[in-house]
Design brief:
Layout (H helix, E strand, L loop, with lengths): L10 H14 L7 H11 L9 H8 L3 H13 L3 E3 L5 E3 L1 H11 L3 H17 L2 E8 L2 E8 L14 E3 L4 H9 L2 H14 L2 H21 L2 E4 L6 E10 L4 E11 L5 H21 L2
Antiparallel strand pairs: 1-2, 3-4, 3-8, 4-5, 6-7, 7-8
Helix pairs in contact: 1-2, 6-10, 7-9, 8-9
Length: about 280
């Protein structure tokens, strides 16, 4: 097999092929241990969770090697173990993917729209999706106003205590909501999980009635935010949510929502349509 393996192949197949080719070529510049670690991560391309045995079978690496790689990748935050003893991508991998994804496709096309919106309306506006029970930011444009929380691409905020998280939950399919509930249950105490469930249920009802969610001082005491879902016409699903936030001292929540929500909904439609 040549080094230029077809990009149409699954990532794991391409990685395995490259490992074999480098071995055949006796490539002394190639770091085999690093290549094996990245090959293990590539096994998760089409799988949310994998067991130790599955990773051995898919990568064709020895059991002891897999054990060492898992330990190293977990220590660095690239893997995490679930309550059922399986492995999934960890926060370090998610953060890197969020940064990379922010430079492509829908997110890349959205960035100039977000900058224009933030400047025109003097708000901070952000685009995010849920990962491991948190909302992971893919694009951020800050308001000229000073806010107490400075978020950037790759930052994570709670699902249940933020407008952007509540909006994502509200527009998600029942199957996706179940996944989010499971992620939250893994991370939160029973009491906090019950509070989160109540907040998300109320937010979903509010979204159905009014078309947006709101957080007034619940994530940060001096921030008022509203959020809406972003329907990606390319995938046919709500892939992101979008918020707009201001210092709460400057606005009454009802007045702010009346002013910004129609504009935010129009922005979400433009982003989702790729306009």
């Amino acid at each position: 097999m040549t080094k230029n393996v077809s990009a149409a192949l699954p990532l794991l197949a391409r990685m395995n092929s490259t490992l074999e080719q480098s071995k055949d070529d006796n490539d002394r510049q190639f770091v085999t241990a690093l290549g094996r670690g990245l090959t293990l991560l590539s096994a998760f391309e089409h799988h949310e969770q994998l067991s130790h045995q599955q990773l051995c079978q898919m990568t064709k690496l020895p059991k002891a090697t897999i054990t060492r790689l898992i330990h190293t990748l977990m220590t660095l935050g690239f893997l995490r173990v679930t309550i059922h003893g399986q492995y999934q991508l960890g926060s370090s991998a998610v953060r890197l993917s969020a940064i990379a994804w922010s430079r492509h496709d829908l997110v890349a096309a959205a960035e100039p729209l977000l900058r224009q919106f933030a400047s025109s309306n003097e708000v901070s506006v952000n685009l995010a999706t849920e990962v491991e029970g948190e909302m992971r930011y893919h694009a951020c444009c800050r308001s000229p106003a000073r806010l107490s929380v400075n978020l950037q691409v790759g930052s994570a905020v709670p699902v249940a205590r933020t407008a952007i998280g509540r909006a994502f939950y509200a527009v998600s399919s029942p199957t996706r909501q179940t996944v989010i509930d499971s992620n939250l249950q893994e991370q939160l105490s029973t009491e906090d999980y019950n509070h989160a469930q109540s907040a998300l249920t109320d937010a979903a009802e509010h979204y159905r009635a009014h078309g947006y969610t709101i957080s007034d001082g619940e994530f940060s005491t001096d921030i008022l935010a509203v959020a809406v879902g972003v329907f990606d016409v390319a995938t046919g699903q709500f892939a992101y949510s979008l918020n707009a936030s201001v210092p709460s001292a400057n606005w009454q929540s009802a007045d702010y929502a009346a002013m910004i929500v129609p504009k935010l909904q129009a922005l979400a439609e433009r982003i989702g349509n790729g306009v």
